[in-house]
Amino acid sequence: xxxxxxxxxxxxxxxxxxxxxVEPQPTWCPGCGDFGVLKSLKQALPEVxxxxxxxxxxxxxxxxxxxxSYLDTYGFHTIHxxxxxxxxxxxxxxxxxxxxxxxxxxxxxxxxxxxxxxxARENHDMTYIVFNNEIFGLTKGQTSPTSPxxxxxxxxxxxxxxxxxxxxxxxxxxxxxxxxxxxxxxPNQAKEIIKEAIEHDGFAHVDFLxxxxxxxxxxxxxxxxxxxxxxxxxxxxxxxxxxxxEMMRETExxxxxxxxxxxxxxxxxxxxxxxQEKKAxxxxxxDPLAERYFDDDAEWERSYDLxxxxx
Amino acid sequence: xxxxxxxxxxxxxxxxxxxxxxxNFAKALMRSGLHVFTHRHYPSRxxxxxxxxxxxxAEREVQSRGDxxxxxxxxxxxxxxxxxxxxxxxxxxxxxxxxNLDELREGGIxxxxxxxxxxxxxxxxxxxxxxxxxxxxxxxxxxxxxxKEHGREVMRNTAGVxxxxxLLEMELEHIEDLMADxxxxxxxxxxxxxLHEAYETTQEEYEFEHDLRAPTGEHESEQALLSGSNxxxxxxxxxGCRFIAGYPMTPWTDVFTILTQNFPDMGGISEQVEDEVxxxxxxxxxxxxxxxxxxxxxxxxxxxxxxxxxxAEMTETPIVLVESMRAGPSTGMPTKPEQSDLEFxxxxxxxxxxxxxxxxxxxxxxxxxxxxxxxxxxDYQIPSIIIYDQKLSGENKNVDVEFFDRExxxxxxxxxxxxxxxxxxxxxxxxxxxxxxxxxxxGVASRSLPGQKGGRYLATGNEHxxxxxxEEDPDNRVFQMERRLEKLEAIRTELDDERESNQxxxxxxxxxxxxxxxxxxxxxxxEAVERLNDAGHSVKGVSVSDMMPFPEQExxxxxxxxxxxxxxxxxxxxxxxxxxxxxxxxxGEKLTSLLKxxxxxxxxxxxxxxxxxxxxxxxxxxxAQVRIEPAAGD
Lengths: 311, 634
What we know:
The structure holds two protein chains of two kinds.
Chain A: H1 34-47, E1 55-59, H2 67-70, E2 74-77, H3 83-93, E3 98-104, H4 105-111, H5 113-122, E4 126-132, H6 167-174, E5 178-183, H7 187-199, E6 203-209, E7 225-227, H8 241-255, E8 260-267, H9 274-280, H10 289-292
Helix pairs in contact in A: 1-7, 4-5, 5-6, 6-8
Chain B: E1 5-14, H1 18-31, E2 35-41, E3 48-58, E4 69-74, H2 95-98, E5 104-113, H3 119-124, H4 127-134, E6 137-141, H5 143-150, H6 156-167, H7 173-182, H8 185-205, E7 223-227, H9 228-238, E8 243-246, H10 253-262, E9 269-272, H11 276-288, E10 293-297, H12 299-304, H13 306-315, E11 319-325, H14 342-347, E12 356-358, H15 363-380, E13 383-389, H16 390-394, E14 396-400, H17 418-423, E15 458-460, H18 474-498, E16 504-507, E17 513-518, H19 522-534, E18 539-544, E19 546-548, H20 552-560, E20 564-569, H21 575-584, E21 591-595, H22 604-614, E22 627-629
Parallel strand pairs in B: 1-4, 4-5, 5-6, 8-9, 8-10, 10-11, 11-13, 12-13, 17-18, 17-20, 20-21
Antiparallel strand pairs in B: 1-3, 2-3, 7-14, 12-19, 16-18, 21-22
Helix pairs in contact in B: 1-7, 5-6, 5-8, 6-8, 9-10, 9-15, 11-13, 19-22
C-alpha cells in the first residue's frame, strides 16, 4: 500500500483545482508574460491527467519564483538559482512525483547555470521552465544573461558589452533530451509544448519568452512570432542533433534582430532518464525510497552487521 | 611517557601503502589484546611527500596519539622528486628517515630501508651521532632487496612489519591472519615468505640490546577498529539515513565515500553533484520529499552550503550536515586538523541562526551524536550539524563491537501520515496548515510530504503564513519567528533535562582548577588531566559537545566549582572560549586559553606544560608551538 495516495489517482480533474483559494490573483504586473506560463500549466496539467497533489512545483527567486504561489500544487519556492538541485533530489527520493522546476533567465542561466548544465547532462525526468524575459525584473530592470548586446540599464549604463547567452544551444550541448521555446503571446503552442515536456521521460527544457512590460519589451515586441514547425521557411529534423543545433543557433541570433522563432527544437526519446540509468547500475532502489519510511515491515540494515571488516 | 606502551611510526611517501600497512598492523595489535589509537599525518598530494601513521598500543585504554613515539619504521619515498638533483625542497628520499627524528623518544628504535637510501645520505644527516646522543637502536635492513627476492618491490612494507615484529618479539599469528584476509594465491604466499624471512633475518643478524617490547593485554569482548568517519557514517545508517549528496573535499570525503559504498546494498541513494550548493540543496529536496537525507563538506565547501542551510532553517526542512574542519583560512592546509570553523558553522547564512550543532570528542561520541543529530532534526524539523575535524575523521581506535548492537531509528519524527492529515488543520481552500503556530507544540508544526492526499502546502524561503504563502504581516512574522525559536529552547530543555549529557567529564570532581575543551582535542586533554592529578595538581576537565544550543547550566556549574580554567582548542583566536563567554556572559577573568594551530593536534605533554605555565604560573615559556592567551584583565 502506498503512503502517497494522491499519486496516480484516476479521476476527473478540473483546471480550477489548480487555482489556490489563497491569493488566486497573482501580483505580477498587468501584461506580464508570466501569466502565460501559469495559464498553460493550469491547462496542461489536467489534460495530462495530473492532480494537484501529485505535482511538486519547485521554483527559484524572482517574479517567476512566485509561480507556485498561484498554482495550487505541492510547492517549494527555494532560493535564487537552486530550484534544480532541490527538484532533482525530490524526484530521486520519490520518482512517482511529477516534478516541475521553474525560474527566470537570471536564475537558471546566470546564478544557477551550473545546476542547469548538470541537470541537463544527467537527464533527470522533469520539466524545467525558464521564464525568459531578457531582464532582471523583480530587482527593477538590470541587464540579465539573455539581455541583448548593447542593452542599457542602471548596471550597464554604457550598454552591455556582452553577447547574450544561448539557452537552447547550451541545453543541447549539456544533454537535455527535450528542448523547446515558446512564448506567452502564443498560448496554444505554449500549452501543447508544456504538455509534451511533462510527458517526456527525461530532462525537458522549455525556454518560455515572457515579456516584461515594465522593464523590457511588451507583448507586441514578441509578435509576430513564428512557429518553426508550421512555417515553410524552416525545415529541420528535431531528432537530428546537428540540424537542431543549426536551427537553435539561428533562432538565438535572430531574436535580437526582432524575429521571434519558437517551437520544438530537439527531442531524443531514446535517451534513458537519470532514474533509469541509476537503476541500471544498481544505485537507485526499485521502489520509491520515500515509501520505505512508511512501511512497517521494512527491515532496516544496521551498522552492527558491517563490523566484520573492522575486527 | 610511560614505557609500557608502543608508539610505532611508519613513514614513507604517499602512495607507498603506508595507510593499509598501518591499518593491518593496528588490527594485529588490537587482536593481540591491546588498546590501539592511530594518528595520520599526510600531505596534500597523490604521490610522494612526507607521510606517516602512528599506532599507539597499550594494555590500558589509549585516547590520544601520546607524546612523541618510540619505534620508527622508515620506508623509502618511491615518489621522491628529483632524487638525482639537489632541488630546493632538498633530498626527498631521505625524508622518511630524517624528518621523523625530532620526535623519537630516547632509547627508541629505528628501522630503515638501506635498499632505498644511500649510505652517504644517512651520513649526511648525522644519524650515528644522534643515535648515540639519544640512545637510539638503529637497524638498517635491505627491505627492498628482501621484497624483490621473494616477490615484488612494493612488498617491502611487509618486510618492514616482519622486522618490527622480530624486534618487538611479537607473535606473527595475527599478522598472518590479516594478510590472509586481505590477499590470496601467489601474492599471499610471497608476502608470507617475506614476512618470515624478515623476521628470521632480524633475529639472526642482530643482538637485541633495546628494552622496548610489544606490550601484552587481553580484551574482555570483541573489538572493532574504526575511524571517526566510520562512526559518523554508521550513526547515519542506524538513524535511517539513506540519502547523501556531496562533492569531494578532504577530509569530509571519507564519510561521503563510506556511505556511498554502503548505500546501494541498503536501498539508499548517493549523489555526487556539481558543487556544494547543489549537494546541500539536494539534501533539502530529498528530505522535503520524505527521505532522511544528509550532506556535508569541509570549510570551503561548507561555505557554499550557507544558502541551502538557511533555506532548511526557514522552510523547517530537517537535514543533517557534517563539517569536517581542516586548517584555514581559505584553502589553508588541506590535510591538517584545526578547530577553527566553529564560529562559521554556528552563524553562517543570513538571519538569526536556527540550527543544532554537535561537536563529538571521540569515536563513540561521533556515532552517538550523529544518531542524535538525525533524531532531533526530524523531531524538530531543523538542520543539525556535526562539526568535527581531520583528526577525528582519520584516527582509528578500538571500540567494543557490542557498542553498535542497537535498534535502528528510521522514524520520520513529526511527519504526518495521510490518515493523520485528515485530522489536521486546513484552511478554507483545503490547504494544509503546515506552519500552524496555533497548534504547534514546542514550536513544532507537523509536516506533510508531496504526494500525500490532503497535505498540499507551499514551502518557501520567504516569511510565510500557516499554509506557506509569502506573508510579511508583522504579527504573522513575530508568531512564526517565535515559534521557530521556541524549538531551540525545547531542544535545549531536552538535552539538559531529559537526556544523558553529551558533555564528557573527567579528573577530580572537587578540583580547584579546570581544563575545558571541545571536539577532537578531548583525548589528549583527558590524558593530560590524568597526568596532572598523578603529579599532585588538582584538576578536573570537561569536553563539550553541545555547541548549539549551548549547555549553559552545565558549564556554569563547572566554572562555579573552580578557581580558574584553561580552554584548550586547536585554533588561533580562541573561538570556543569566545562562545563560552558569550553564552555565559561571565567568567572572563577565570578563563585562559591554550591554543595550537601549527597543523598538528595536541600531545598530552603540551597540555600538561601549558597548564604548568598558564595556570600553575610556573615562570617559564612553553617549549611547544602553542599560544597562551591570558584571562580578561590579566
